[in-house]
Amino acid sequence: MRSKVIGAVSLAVAAVGLFAAAAPAFAQQKTITVWWSKGFYRSEDDALIETIKKFEAKTGIKVELSQYAIQDMIPKTVAALDAGTVPDVAYSDSYDVQAQGKWAYEGKLEDLTDVMEPIKDRFVQNTLDASILYNDVAKKKAYYGFPLKQQSMHVQIWNDMLEKAGFKQSDIPNDWTGYWSFWCDKVQPAIRKATGQRIYAVGQPMGVESTDAFQSFYTFMDAYHVKLVDDDGKLLVDDPKVRDGLIKAMKDYTDTYIKGCTPPSSTTWKDPDNNVAFHNKTIVMTHNFTISIAAKWYEDSQNQALTQEQRDAGKKAYEQDIITASFPKAPDGSTIKYRSDVKTGLIFTAAKNKAEAKQFISFLLQEDNVRPYIEGALGRWFPVTKESQESPFWQADKHRKAVYAQFKGGTAPFDFTKNWKFTILNNENVWAKAMNRVVSEKVPVDKAVDELIARIKQVAG
């Protein structure tokens, strides 16, 4: 239809000699397709759409935006790759964890060095490092992605439920063993007695379809200083100390379930489910790889579509009742260094409009555009640029201050940034499968860990 319209305009111009200068500009207008994960909050999506409007007005390039649920992005992208109909720009919260390193290795991603090199000084180093991947076709490392945002592990606690159980925040131990014992052996029986309800103290994600499960388990591994790969991506799992650390981490993680301290359904939880359990107050605390739990209540407090009573409840929950905290000290008394998951977007080598796609990325990453997008997520994502990290937004309340402090304390990358084959392991969620071997199939922890190590070696060796 569009080609027929253009043809008709051209014929009319030729016939009457009018608008001769306008016709070529109209005919040559470019359109790029952009696929993007749908945000958690409307303000996040609104900020992206506003940036697209500004980009179109400045460049004359039309952007066709399609947004999809996170669980749909990889299947749709794989189908597009197979069909040769890829979008010009693509971003998903799941790309980096489950696919991007593999696509880079296979030579399917466009080198974005010309985009990133001129602006790299604006970015925090760990976010640049996460965007540099290895291409086995080109036999080089380069920017096969652009950093957009990052996340890390936090603990969310209902302070009002803690108080109802007869405790206050200062009662929570900071040693590893005492911390988990406190929730399971003290808080859970106390809150059940106080309410007469079957409330669980902990929400421990263990579902195979849950990224929360493997991200949380990594924190337990980090508590025991488990290092699965070296800086070059070479496996270290044959080291007896690694096996010993994995066994201890797996035992601690699954003991919460075995002691009846997390809901039985947590073995099948998907990513939203620990959030839902927390919001419904069927658990007192959970660990989550963003502060999306607290941010949900902030959004409620600002949502004019809700009643005043609902907005007030959101404000009270966010400002008074919910605590954003860190994990306790590691078993040896050291402070856990949290993993940072840097989310990256991409351009495929098969994209039809790569030059215009790079223009879009460059525009999006400008400070005036990327900051509203990140802050539109209400604290769920932490910035990748130095300037945005010092925005007043991160000092505005206790939850954002906690996120800021945690990132400023230093983070470590995930193993998939050093060995792309860990994206396969994450996609399989071998971590949650090992958990379920222990809690559902009653396999001894050491046997489940040995199976886990065997699978890691089979895939990533």
- Major sheet description: 4 strands, mixed
Text of the CATH class of the largest domain: Alpha Beta
Number of strands: 12
Q: Which value, in Å, is the CA radius of gyration?
A: 24 Å
CATH superfamily annotation of the largest domain:
Periplasmic binding protein-like II
Termini separation:
53 Å
Q: What is the average per-residue confidence, as pLDDT, rounded to a whole number?
A: 93
Question: What amount of the residues lies in strands?
Answer: 5-15%
Query: What share of the residues lie within helices?
Result: 40-55%
The outline comes out as globular
CATH architecture of the largest domain: 3-Layer(aba) Sandwich
Task: Report low-confidence residues grouped into runs of 5 or more.
Answer: 1-27
CATH topology of the largest domain: D-Maltodextrin-Binding Protein, domain 2
What quaternary form is this? single chain
Count of folded domains: 2
Strand sequence of the main sheet, in spatial order? 8-9-7-10
Structural class: alpha/beta
Number of separate helices:
22
Report on the architecture of this protein.
The protein has 461 residues and is α/β, with parallel strands linked by helices. The protein has two domains: 187 residues, Periplasmic binding protein-like II (D-Maltodextrin-Binding Protein, domain 2), CATH 3.40.190; 216 residues, 3-Layer(aba) Sandwich (D-Maltodextrin-Binding Protein, domain 2), CATH 3.40.190. 50% of the residues lie in helices and 13% in strands. The chain is built from 22 helices and twelve strands. The strands form four sheets. It has a four-stranded mixed beta sheet with strand order 8-9-7-10. Helix 11 crosses helix 12. The longest helix has 20 residues. The protein starts with a helix and ends with a helix. The relative contact order is 0.16. The N terminus is likely disordered. One of its GO terms (cellular component) is periplasmic space. Belongs to the bacterial solute-binding protein 1 family. Keywords: Cell membrane, Lipoprotein, Membrane, Palmitate, Periplasm, Signal. It is found in: Periplasm. Its main location: periplasm.
